[in-house]
Every structure is written in C-alpha cells, then in structure tokens.
C-alpha cells in the first residue's frame, strides 16, 4: 500500500482528496437545493391551503341573523314633527350637498297626477341611513308616514350601526305628492324590496353619468324627474355614536350641529319638492326660508 | 446561478406590481369622496378601498403596496439577482414572504370582514403570489457551488 502511494505522481496525490471533497460539496449543495425547493413548495402549499380555506369559509359561513327593522315607535312620530320654526332657523344649513337638476326637457314623473318621489336604498348602507333622516323630515311637511321601521346600518361597513329608519313596510299619504321608498336589502345584505320594472328603469337611467361617477350607487332620490340626489347629502359621521332618540332631540335644536346639517338637507329636499310640485302646498312652499333655499338650487339644464 | 427566465419574470412582475400599486395609490388620493354605497355587489373596489381594513397602522395599504413593489423591483432587477452582496438574497426572500403574508391578511379581510372584492387589489395579490412562487421555488433552486479549488499541480 505504501509503495503504491509512493509510486503515484505528485500531482495525482494532491488531486485525489480535492476531487472527493468537491463531490462532497456538490452533494451537500444538491441536498441544500432539495431542502430549499421542498421548503418553497411547502410555503406555496400553505398559502394555497389558507386561501382555499378562507374562500370556502366565506362561501359557506352562516350569514349573521338579519336585524329586522322594528317599529320606529315614538322616534318615528317625533321625526315627523320637527318644528317649522327650527327648520326656518336652520335654512340651507351647513355641509349640505343639494340635489342636482335634471334637463329641462325630461318628462315629469307623476303618480295619480301628483309629482312622484322615488327613493332606492338599502338598510345596510350607511349613506342611506343618513339620507333617510332629512328625507323623512322633508316628506313629513307634505304628508304622513305610517309604520316607519327602525333600523341601523351595517355593523361592518363604514359609519357602522348608524341609527336610522326603514321605509320597508311603511306607507305614505299626501294630498300633494306621491312617495315610494324601496329598501333592496336588510342591514345584513339579505334581499328585501324588489323595485318595480318602472322603478328599475328610472334607477338605471338616472343613476349614471353625468349625475354620478359611480353608476348604480345608493341612496338614489328622484324628485319628480326635476331633481336627483345620488348619495348622502351630508357626511354620516355627524350621526356616529348617537341613539335614534338623541338624533331626534338634536333635530329640534337649531343650534345643534346635527340640526344644521340634517334640517338643512331637509330644507333643500323640501325646496326641490316645492319646485317640482308647483309651489304646493303654499303653507310649506311659500315660507320665506323655503323660497330662499329654492333660489339656491341648481337650475334645470338645457 | 438563478435561471435567466426567473430573473426576467420576477423583474417584469415586480414592475407590473409597481404600476398597479401606483394606480391604487393615485386613486386613493385623488378619487372624489363619494358619499354613496356602491350597488355592484361582491365586486366593489370602492367598498374595499374605503373600508377600515384599507389602512394598516394608519398608513393606506395602497401606499404600503407601492413601497413594497418598488423594493421588490430593486431586489429582482437583473443586477440584484447575481449580486455578491450577502444581504440581497435574504432580503429578497424576506420581502416576498412579508408581502405574501400581508396578501393573506388582505384576502381574509376582503372575503370575511368587508365582504367584497376589489379587482385591482386582487391583481396585486396575484402578482405577489406569482413572485412568491418564482422566488421561493425557482429563485433559490440552483445555489451557486463553492469555488473550484485551485489545482495544486501548478
């Protein structure tokens, strides 16, 4: 053995251990590659498994039980009795975006010979929750609601649990105007009212450019095909954390921020209805405040 | 050496991610604040991008996505892949893993908490997933061997 080793050329004596150690390094590198690849595949598998779990879970998870709108009770009555003196004191209010005017040649929207007001919204929608307040205050000057529901906006959306009312199941009576309130979903997203074909056609025609850059957005408020409002007229944040009774009480105080905003929005809706209904009834439409607010509304486009 | 197609693919994907996240960031700061709910059902970008989950520690997620995508583009550039700097490889792996973990949180937030999907956000999620797959499976599959020993015959 010793002789054999001694007979080898010097170069080969040195190369032999180098080759074997290179092989060992290559084998080690290969093992590392395999380990890295296995870890990578495991990571990708975990990601896919997580996504699959979330997708399946979201598809099959039981929907939270819908919070059915209950009777609005005394709040439903009180919101219809905001003193005219308070509304006059607030005027156009502050932080209010008034309805937009439609083209002058748009055929008027009527029902039974009366200008028709159409509201399309949903109970989950926080902006609808905000818009119902001034809408009810305004409509109450022209007629009376029965069976207004009490509800709150979605607990998981922006401005969660905004206290409000629901038009689902309510009726409205007026000598001068007609009103239809359509609530398409509950506050947990379950189907509620189905718009009629005519309501749906109107919604699709006007809830689009140039009146909104978010077609199909709600709340949608059409006032006799003369004015349209898409979205809330004010920031719902002003109602955050307030109970329904607190909001009702604030509406009667012309110095409260809620009254300045909500009553101001109610006055712009009232003025728009007066413009559409030919100034009837005079007891509402001839008031200096409403006349003044009406003068600030946008003119019909040509 | 990392396969050339992996280098090219990751760089292109990262650049697309920069473009998408830049769009989302610009949209975040320039879109008018619409006081309305979208009636478009489960596909609802506005609902997602205005949700409480659209911010992380007070920072818009779109901005975080843009910062991450720019960092990934730098780490996946054809110059960065063969870099001898010791920190580049672990930084790339860590960045893509952090990005993937964040995407998993956002997918959960969209599907479970918000209940709506934003197509632009989903595009960003898919780009992140593609980068993750390429980097963790193929990016380190061919580790460079140690330098050949110098032949002692000289």
In short:
The complex is a heterodimer of chains A (302) and B (154). With 302 residues, chain A is α+β, with helices and mostly antiparallel strands.
Question: Can you characterise this structure?
Answer:
The complex is a heterodimer of chains A (302) and B (154). Chain A is α+β, with helices and mostly antiparallel strands. Chain A folds into two domains: 2-60; 71-296, no CATH class. Chain A contains ten helices and eleven strands. In chain A, strands 2, 3, 4, 9, 10 and 11 form a six-stranded mixed beta sheet that branches. In chain A, strands 1-6-7 form a three-stranded antiparallel beta sheet. In chain A, strand 3 (110-111) and strand 4 (114-121) form a beta hairpin. In chain A, helix 4 packs across helix 8 and helix 5 (126-139) packs across helix 8. The longest helix of chain A has 51 residues, at 10-60. Chain A is elongated, with a radius of gyration of 33 Å. The model of chain A is unreliable at 1-14 (pLDDT under 50). By secondary structure, chain B is mostly helical. Chain B has a single domain, classed as Up-down Bundle (de novo design (two linked rop proteins)). Helices cover 62% and strands 3% of the residues of chain B. Chain B contains five helices and two strands. Chain B has helices at residues 4-30, 45-49, 61-75, 88-114, 119-139; strands at residues 55-56, 59-60. In chain B, strands 1-2 form a two-stranded antiparallel sheet. Chain B is elongated and about 55 Å long. Chain B starts with a helix and ends in a 15-residue tail after the last helix. In chain B, 35% of the residues are buried. Residues 144-154 of chain B have low confidence and may be disordered. Classes of the chains: A alpha+beta (302), B mainly alpha (154). Chains A and B meet through helix 2 and helix 5 of A and helix 4 and helix 5 of B.
């Amino acid at each position: 053995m010793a002789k054999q080793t001694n007979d080898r050329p010097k170069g080969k004596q040195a190369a032999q251990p180098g080759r074997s150690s290179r092989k060992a390094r290559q084998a080690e590198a290969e093992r590392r590659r395999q380990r890295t690849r296995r870890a990578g595949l495991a990571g990708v598998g975990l990601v896919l498994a997580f996504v699959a779990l979330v997708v399946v879970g979201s598809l099959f998870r039981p929907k939270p039980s819908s919070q059915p709108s209950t009777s609005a009770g005394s709040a439903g009555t009180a919101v219809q009795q905001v003193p005219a003196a308070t509304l006059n004191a607030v005027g156009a209010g502050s932080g209010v975006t008034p309805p937009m005017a439609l083209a002058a040649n748009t055929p008027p929207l009527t029902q039974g010979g009366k200008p028709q007001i159409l509201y399309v919204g949903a109970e989950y929608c926080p902006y609808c929750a905000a818009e119902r307040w001034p809408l009810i205050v305004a409509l109450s000057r022209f007629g009376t609601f029965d069976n207004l529901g009490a509800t709150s906006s979605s607990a998981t959306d922006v401005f969660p649990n905004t206290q409000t009312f629901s038009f689902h199941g309510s009726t409205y009576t007026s000598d001068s105007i007609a009103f239809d309130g359509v609530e398409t979903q509950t506050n947990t997203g379950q189907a509620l009212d189905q718009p009629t074909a005519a309501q749906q056609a109107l919604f699709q025609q006007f809830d689009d450019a140039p009146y909104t850059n978010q077609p199909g957005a709600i709340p949608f408020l059409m006032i006799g095909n003369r004015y349209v409002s898409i979205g809330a007229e004010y920031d719902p944040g002003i109602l955050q954390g307030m109970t329904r009774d607190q909001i009702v009480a604030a509406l009667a105080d012309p110095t409260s921020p809620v009254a300045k905003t909500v009553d101001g929005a109610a006055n712009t809706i009232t003025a728009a209805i007066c413009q559409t209904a030919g100034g009837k009834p005079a007891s509402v439409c001839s008031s200096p405040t409403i006349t003044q607010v009406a003068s600030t509304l946008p003119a019909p486009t040509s | 050496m990392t396969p050339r197609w992996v280098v090219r693919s990751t760089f292109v994907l990262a650049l697309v991610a920069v473009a998408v996240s830049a769009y989302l960031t610009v949209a975040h700061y320039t879109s008018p604040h619409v006081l309305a709910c979208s009636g478009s059902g489960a596909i609802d970008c506005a609902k997602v991008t205005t949700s409480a989950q659209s911010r992380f520690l007070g920072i818009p997620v779109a901005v975080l996505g843009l910062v991450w995508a720019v960092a990934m583009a730098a780490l996946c550039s054809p110059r960065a892949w063969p870099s001898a700097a010791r920190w580049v490889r672990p930084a790339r792996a860590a960045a893509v893993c952090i990005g993937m973990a964040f995407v998993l949180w956002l997918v959960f937030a969209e599907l479970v908490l918000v209940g709506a999907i934003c197509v632009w956000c989903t595009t960003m999620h898919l780009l992140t997933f593609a980068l993750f797959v390429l980097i963790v499976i193929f990016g380190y599959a061919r580790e460079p061997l140690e330098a050949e020993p110098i032949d002692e015959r000289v």
